[in-house]
Amino acid sequence: MARLTPELIEQAGLACATTLRQLGVANPRIGIFGINPHAGENGLFGDDDDRITTPAVQRLRAAGLSVEGPIGADIILGRKDIDGFVAIYHDQGHIPVKLLAGREASALSVGAGVLFSSVGHGSAFDIAGQNKADPAAVLRTLRLIGNVPAQPAAASAA
Fold this sequence. Notes:
This protein has six helices and five strands; from the N terminus they run αβαβαβαββαα.
């Protein structure tokens, strides 16, 4: 926990906002996950969110961003009014996204200056070359980073 700082979470929030704008969201709303269950419940489950996450959220708001948090991932992921999320650690974000989106999940990594995305299900080496792979997640990922709208099913079959 010593390496996690308000500055790192603030940087992640800024990178999230920048990327959402690149993807066409003019005024992004960002949700910041809490570190501890239920974002610490005001110290009931540790003070990490009070010390680390909350100051980052306050700085992001002071910079003019629409940010909510820290909020437990299990609560905020169900919200339809949030454009992007900042997960504090890998499985905190990937597990619920994969459960919600299934085999169509895409992971978008931001902050490196280029958009990098990968499908949530991995590279499927076990079925490579067998004409079994479903390309839906790859196509969705390419549309996401290319800011290309999805085509109707009939048009894509032509």
